[in-house]
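re: ur msg from earlier - yeah i can do the thiamine diphosphate complex, just paste it... oh wait u already did. ok heres what im feeding in:
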Amino acid sequence: MASEAFDVNMLIGGQAGQGMQTSGQLLAKSLLKLGFYISTLQSFHSRIRGGHNYYQIRLASTPINCMTRSVDVLLAFDENTLWEHQGELHADSLSIFNSEKIKVDHGKLKGRLLELSMSQVYPEAVTDEIFTNVVYVGVLAGLLNCPEAEVESVIGETFNKGAGVLEKNVAGYRAGRKFVQDAKVSNPRLTNVHPEKQERSLVLHGNEAIALGALAAGCRFYTAYPMTPASTILETMAHYMSQAQVVVEQAEDEIAALNMVLGASFAGVRAMTGTSGGGFSLMVEAVSLAGMLEIPAVIALAMRPGPATGLPTRTEQGDLEFAIHAGHGEFARVLLSPGTHAECFYQTTHAFNLADRYHVPVLVLTDQYLSDWYTRVPEFKMEQVTRDYGPMVEGKADYARYALTDNGVSPRMVPGRGEGLVVVDSDEHTQGGHLTEDLAVREKMVKKRLQKIEGLKREYFMPEVMGTGQDTLVMCWGSNRGVVADVVAHFQQLGKAVTWMHFKQVWPLPEERLRPLLSAYRHLVMVENNATGQFARVLQGETGVTIAQRILKYDGKPFLFEDLLTALEKLLV
Amino acid sequence: MASEAFDVNMLIGGQAGQGMQTSGQLLAKSLLKLGFYISTLQSFHSRIRGGHNYYQIRLASTPINCMTRSVDVLLAFDENTLWEHQGELHADSLSIFNSEKIKVDHGKLKGRLLELSMSQVYPEAVTDEIFTNVVYVGVLAGLLNCPEAEVESVIGETFNKGAGVLEKNVAGYRAGRKFVQDAKVSNPRLTNVHPEKQERSLVLHGNEAIALGALAAGCRFYTAYPMTPASTILETMAHYMSQAQVVVEQAEDEIAALNMVLGASFAGVRAMTGTSGGGFSLMVEAVSLAGMLEIPAVIALAMRPGPATGLPTRTEQGDLEFAIHAGHGEFARVLLSPGTHAECFYQTTHAFNLADRYHVPVLVLTDQYLSDWYTRVPEFKMEQVTRDYGPMVEGKADYARYALTDNGVSPRMVPGRGEGLVVVDSDEHTQGGHLTEDLAVREKMVKKRLQKIEGLKREYFMPEVMGTGQDTLVMCWGSNRGVVADVVAHFQQLGKAVTWMHFKQVWPLPEERLRPLLSAYRHLVMVENNATGQFARVLQGETGVTIAQRILKYDGKPFLFEDLLTALEKLLV
Amino acid sequence: MDQQAYKGMETAWCPGCGNFGILNAVKQALLELEKKPQEIMLFSGIGQAAKLPHYMRGHVFNGLHGRALPAAQAAKLANHRLTVLAFGGDGDMYGEGGNHFLHAIRRNVDITVLVHDNRIYGLTKGQASPTTDLGVKTKVQTEGVINGPLNPLALAISQHCAFVARGFSGSIEHLTTMIKAGIAHPGFSYIEVMQPCVSFNHINTHAWYKERIYDVAQDGKHDPTNYLSALEKAEEWGSRIPLGVIYRNDRPAYDSLCGALKNGPLVDQVFRPELIAQFIRHY
Amino acid sequence: MDQQAYKGMETAWCPGCGNFGILNAVKQALLELEKKPQEIMLFSGIGQAAKLPHYMRGHVFNGLHGRALPAAQAAKLANHRLTVLAFGGDGDMYGEGGNHFLHAIRRNVDITVLVHDNRIYGLTKGQASPTTDLGVKTKVQTEGVINGPLNPLALAISQHCAFVARGFSGSIEHLTTMIKAGIAHPGFSYIEVMQPCVSFNHINTHAWYKERIYDVAQDGKHDPTNYLSALEKAEEWGSRIPLGVIYRNDRPAYDSLCGALKNGPLVDQVFRPELIAQFIRHY
Ligand SMILES: Cc1ncc(C[n+]2csc(CCOP(=O)(O)OP(=O)(O)O)c2C)c(N)n1
Ligand SMILES: Cc1ncc(C[n+]2csc(CCOP(=O)(O)OP(=O)(O)O)c2C)c(N)n1
Ligand code: SF4
Ligand code: SF4
Ligand SMILES: [Mg+2]
Ligand SMILES: [Mg+2]
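and the outut:
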């Protein structure tokens, strides 16, 4: 089936509990089944019912790196949704709603309207509102001209409970579809929207990619205290508990979680925890402990807007400097900052390798946007995953956990394997691991622990760079990769000499290697989801290269394509 | 009594529990009573008995800013002490010990020896070792030629328990004194050591100065969990509990401590907590909370070597960057870094004022050295202490805790005073303090909270600068002021063009005002008690001025005069 | 004054949530005690339960998950003239905040704490809480809960908590009485409130509770001053669930023992510079 | 093998400290159970008590103040073939670490915990601990302790802790028996050890304890499987102090319930990439 290039953005909005998440997911699932490239953005309030939530689905003929603001189809479950999103509509946009429930002054609404009388379209959905979702799925599927049978098969998979329920759902779907065909809505943007079948791709969100990464790395112990937006890593891991022989335990608090990780890791298994800023705050003492004990630990830090409780269901990149310096005393650590789902997966496997090879805490830094970002991506390959457990020995009787070595890394042993004893101590300690107040030993141990930073810098994941010319460099880290890549590509197509650079590791920074890279450009721009330009400050501090321009966003939402487009346009004139 | 310039360094060493702390304190007390300028350094192991501990007393004819390495008189309670400190002796040093307990090969010992047979000098001290201390006090007092009666009066004050005990102590003291007079030890350094009576001075350690500062600021609530070296602030506050109407409560953990401070402060009283790095790690979430709630909070952070438990009874300045960035999310805070006992006192009072005027957490950053540094200082003046509670209102019914203002600071009200209600919330909130998910409000509130940084920078305590010429600038912060001042003065006297600068506030830094100050010098040197040069990095990052030279020490001990002398000599050739 | 005097912002709870009943009882109790909003300080952590203070009028300190109690105790000590209440869920108070709960019982500051125990993590969408029953499956406890459930009443009684009661969000009148008694009792008053969560707890529903609850006061047999029989009552769970004052004693409150509070609320104390000058001169 | 097999570094405790007796009993128990140092993992926090693992031979994890239990439980789950013991003081385990203690009881992982209860903060030089008696004056509690002392035994029993015993550092043989029984008992075994601190606790001295202790097992009357009588025993304090197994039950240990451990210790599981590839393809 030949297909033209297309790019459609749909927004389904209403109150929490009204089920527009079900519609969205059903539709997304169907579209995905059909092989579309889709990507979704969910905007939720921190409540279970009510409020204004929405679910955005973008589908396109090429892989999608970010979300757009401009809405082509608006499906409103309540009146509020109509008004809230007027600013995102264009003249051709189509707003769909049940005119029996929503009565509005048409003149005030932008774009075109497709009103539906539910009692006529599918009376069953008036009796039981639960069937509203599937009607709208029909409407949208009809609009997009999706193959009928395939959507029905998804519906079949979803509602395989009681025979009656499934039938009513299929009927509702067909009714919605029929309605839209009868209505003969035409929209150039919505025709010829046909997928090319994508082989071997996955549909998941960032947290699932991280959990799969942990499993692929051989993680055997995952413990966390629930915290949005990190909880779904815990839930995904819990799903595989018995199957994958991984202990998944909900800790009494975050302090316990990281101390448990260290205990499990000490005993010889790969272990991980995940949380958001508030929970990470509570882990800080144990981060310092990991530094002192030199025990591998992997921590997923899914950021949300702070300080304190902040906006629990929104996104921000506000904890970077905190994470870089978290924990009293001086010790080495690594911060990885994946920008794609594939990086979520592979960087998590790397995190375990780095942790094991250097015996340091490694953070995988994401944010709510990436955590919840649900999209289609190429399949992750187990063949590309290595598991490097670092230097290990079967301990002789004189085994010394902190034996001084050339690179500050002392071979580990698994307690119980061999004659040696593994002794680790949070006090300053001897090579054997016992507490000491010998200040000459102290000096040696400080050097040993800090020496690892050199090794880590040598192994730094250099940033991804795309573009030519030495004029403007637009930099970002973590979840902003997609939007920066797309917006900069847009300018590149317009012939601008602009390059983008994505940092998938933000600490430690090999200043010597980065300096020439940055100095090569005339204008440096940093794009971040925080209010003070944290990575710009860190990068500037480390390299000494001034980063003059910062594009910042800190209202809890990710950059949409248009946001960055507008901001960059001003800089690129 | 005329007096020549003098400078004597005595070291009393032995095992914990042997009582050399008693001797040291008794002697110190006597010397202080006599009006000497003295200063002490205590080196303790983290245990109650045994190990090698020592007590160093330096006395001089002028105020003492730091301690020296070179020891003039070594009083050894055990053999180990003799050997441990050989490296600090010079040809004229006098080593004193009980030859009945310590048998050593004289040839191997440096300097001169004064051996004493306790059974001959004071047999009572053989029967009951408790009297050993006072004999040595006699020996040292005799050596220093202290007025006999005055030392006896101190002994009288100290041992007023039972009549028999006092008499035996006085007798022991006299015996020691007689012994040293009979022995006719002569030492040019120890003659003509006469104090000038110092009027209106205090003898205390840094933590007592901080506690007094808190009381002088009107602190009414102090809560902490015991942690070396901060515990003595808690203990000093507890001493005044009923007298000063200050609730002093030992919290169940550090998390509770800072959350309690916020509760008390919310209710309208000045409140404070104190801890060391490990405890501060646990407070980090509540630091972020203070930033979000905009509740004044004062935290004393007395640093010790980390990571983790580290060296609990030693000193380090290793938590600076951690403290600057502690807490998730972005918000304003202040870090004061007193360098003297007077600064401990006055900066603590300022801390309360800044906290109240900006509604931010303020940290008073010290370290074990300054916390425990016991010395004579000029009296603190209550007349010089202001108490500025910041903008307060008696709340009308429409009182809004987070009303938007020009400078980001919204007037506070005390709950219960007036009609208004005080509502604070750790979620993002409206001006009225209630939780909101309005993202436009979010943006305004972020700006409000961060705007305070500008005000705080305007009120920055500019560093103290001493010297002329634009060649070399030696910088430091916190407890290193004394040693840097003395060593640089030494080079200045030698005619070197070198200046010292002490930062008594390390965050936030007004980069615009500091840049020209630093750029004026050709060579910049930073002296710090940590392994990575944290303040140098911060200052460089903020101002963009490169600080090429760092003198670092991280073995758990403070810089002694000679340490810095040697290090600076190399740089100043 | 009527309940309207306490009306706060619009609620964001699910329709049918047990929290509404608790909110109702709290307002009613304060009304009956004639406490003005200006005379009460309401503390909470984070969770569905912890939103309650926003839906009331009073001074509000909505702090961190698990940390309501330290702030509440300190505020009371700073101004013991005001009435202090704290609210939180089972995760908030027994999980993240377990240590503060334990030590607040020991400290015995005169505050009243309501734990809205829906036996689940509501706000974070349905993970097990410390009180979730053995075997219950959730998205995290995919093979069923294997940690023994906490018995918070037994915990409190075992440490001689000054006042321990149990209420039910569906028995508003009874709960109102408990809250009033808790506020009246000097020292740390703890009220465990059984609360259905219609979204995530499909076991301990409103009907489930209705079938089981009974008032310990009804037959006059339970002596709440008897430590062991109180512990016995605290163990009762299953076909019959006791409501009411399970345990109380007359330990003096911290506020009455603390030397620094002898002259009245801290917040009213006048600063005396000469006193501090005197301390200073002592060094 | 003899006790020498467990000899670790030189101790730094004060002469006369009760910790010596505890160390002795631990070594003796392990000896009698024929555990090689390679077969035991010893966890501790920070404090005088928490130094114990350094004075032994075994795998040692000396972590943070208050945080021994999370690490110990996790290590056991990572390798449940090894014997896990944890040690800490009253401040460590009941103060800073109170929440972990509470939830470790619920989790019931098969480890054995000794709390060296000297009723004071030893290492930090004599502040009150959660178990310090009312009225005791210290440098911080300058007007005497006003917080009610914790009753840790009652706490543990109230939550149906699998094994609860009390020992005395001065009754080494008895303590040895308790430790052996604790190790043998599946699930979380908690042994409260009364320990004199000669430097900072001048009330609860060795002699003070000697005068008061008695063995509950002696008259055969105490039934440690009876919840209420165990709680009654836990309340006994003053002229007579009971030693021995105060409470136990046969709750299954976490280790035996956890699906992920069915195939043996985690640490021995072989990584199966094809399994993960299968999971991945499912998305
Ligand atoms: C430090 C920290 N960890 C985790 C969270 C996330 N969180 C918010 S509420 C909550 C638990 C909610 O359960 P509960 O306390 O029982 O209250 P409920 O919603 O059931 O009323 C959690 C885990 C948080 N806000 N802060
Ligand atoms: C987070 C943290 N807070 C405080 C301390 C300081 N600290 C070390 S040991 C200790 C308490 C010691 O008392 P206990 O646990 O009863 O042990 P003991 O020394 O009496 O055996 C404290 C408060 C610390 N190391 N870490
Ligand atoms: S999720 Fe449960 S506890 Fe939360 S508001 Fe809904 S019903 Fe109430
Ligand atoms: S201080 Fe007390 S507990 Fe610590 S070693 Fe000395 S006697 Fe033992
Ligand atoms: Mg709950
Ligand atoms: Mg103790």
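cool cool. Chain C touches chain A at residues 12-15, 46, 48, 63-66, 95-96, 98, 121-125, 127-128, 130, 139-143, 199 (CB under 8 Å). ping me if u need the other ligands too
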